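Whether sequence alone determines local backbone shape is best considered at the level of individual chains. We regard such an encoding as a compact summary of how the chain folds. The sequence in question and its structure tokens are set out directly beneath this paragraph.
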Amino acid sequence: MTLNASFVKVPITPPIGLRLGGFAHRMASPSRFIHGDLYARVLLVGSRMGELVLVQLDLLGLYSSDVELIRGIVSKRLGIKAGDVVVMATHTHSSPETVIPMWVNTFPYTREERALYNQWFNGLLSRLEESLEGGPIHEPKGVRVKVGELDAAESGRLCVSRLTGGYVSVNIQAVLIETRNGLGRVILYSHPCHPTCNMDLGVSPDYPGEVHSALTSSGIEPMFMPGFMGDVTPSVRGINCISNLGNSISRAILGGMVKLSEVNNDEVWVRVKRINVPLRQPPPLARAKARFEELYGKANELGLIRREPIEDLWRGLNERWVRDRELALKAKLLLDLLYADEEYELAKGNAEWEAAELGVVKLGDITMVTVPGEPFTGTLNTIKARLSGKASGASMNIIGVGYTNGYIGYIPTREAFRLGSYETRLARWSRVAEGTDDLIASEILSLLT
């Protein structure tokens, strides 16, 4: 068995002044400082059976059009088919708004903001291309691959399910790729918890950045594979969350690597399938516009339309703050305005379907299933259960990877729709119709069997 691999990473940290994605309470405020650098990472793996490239970026997400730009660059520079390039975003909520810019009608991007964003993103693409023009990525070495599931009970106590409110049972799926002399090591790891620790105006890779710091100091380059984590979030937020969760994961990886097992085959391939996903429909355009303008006017009268973080107002919706009636009413008004803004934007397009690329990536004994959005843990459990029903042990070494090759938003389970959880309220980050999780599970199974 012969596997070869090469790796490169390049910084893609944005300049201060870009809006950060993922949190509405930032109120379209520009970033003010940098907690840690963002990176793009490229891993090339090949054997006599085929080759593939994994590209991982410390970003909120990427639409399919941007994925195709990156695939084109990688394909051109590495001479690999674009379809064999897999592009993942870590989904850090402290990176620029590469997907779903928030408050798009309340605070439209200025010409200067759009120019700054375009300059940064085009620079990202240029730096990525430059990193692939020569050097180590073109000098693959013979490697061995080890895989396994690492106990991460400690990090599980730092993450909660948004459906049940309880702590989650977490194991880390790990794939270690190391040169035969052990001098070069890259570890792919999947952890099913949103990188949403940081909520301020600082750029940050979030807890995967802490893992990066800890592992690179031990000579290991980590690549975070965002799991099926649409319904799992840190139990607390803030800078301490980044440190606690990141260090917990690092300890699990460093302490568990000796338990990983070497793969016994050199299969390397990618399969993809493009499907049309049904979307829920917004109100008619005229009604959505009128609703947005009504709520905007009310919020403006109260002085709430300002580009300053107002986290205290969002906390006004929490039960422990509800005794302050005025605060709670202002918070609810802003929340209603946010969703009115979203419905107005959706109504301008009023699409019925959205294309989605599903994938299966085979690397030795590991099978990664990829989804271009935010799937829930229950969907991965469904896929594994159905595989186990077909053949004993078929679900072993299956890794679910979300936020890959595009972005279609949350993909809630039927249980989430029944509970009416946050992830099911109509917005550009939650558009797919109920039952899409079952559709995706079935289509992925068709790729696997």
Remarks:
- The mean pLDDT is 92.
- The CA atoms of residues 4 and 46 lie 5 Å apart.
